[in-house]
Amino acid sequence: MTDISVSKTNYQVEKLSWLLDDGGWEKESITLDISTFTAGTHYPNGFIQSGTSLGKITATGLYGPYDDTAVDGRQTLRGHLGISTKVPNIADTTKDAGAPLVFAAVVKESKLPATVDAAGKTDVAGWIRYV
User: Fold this and answer.
1) For 33-89, what is each residue's pLDDT tens digit?
2) Triad 113, 119, 123: Cα angle to 5°
3) CATH number for 113
């Protein structure tokens, strides 16, 4: 039987104004650990914004939001989220999402969703230049 019920789909308008020069899109495919992100802060509309600073969780190899005070590996900045990424299921944050990590670029810091601290800039020095 065909389902003809009304459904709703949300979309995110992409804003890549933070990415001034991507050097030919220096990126790698990663998996985001959605449970490490905060709903109201990191994905208020169901999408994690492109440009979000990311760190790699040592125990799992998954990525979460960069946090200089973390002790799980996310205290080391690894790069920025390449495109806005939909959270698969807001009600079940155990479902992770694939995404691109920009690890080499020229970035306009004022256009990022959040500023990067001095320790984070040191982590990616030589790969990412902030202007």
Assistant:
1) 999 999 989 999 999 999 999 999 999 999 999 999 999 999 999 999 999 999 999
2) 90
3) 2.40.300.10
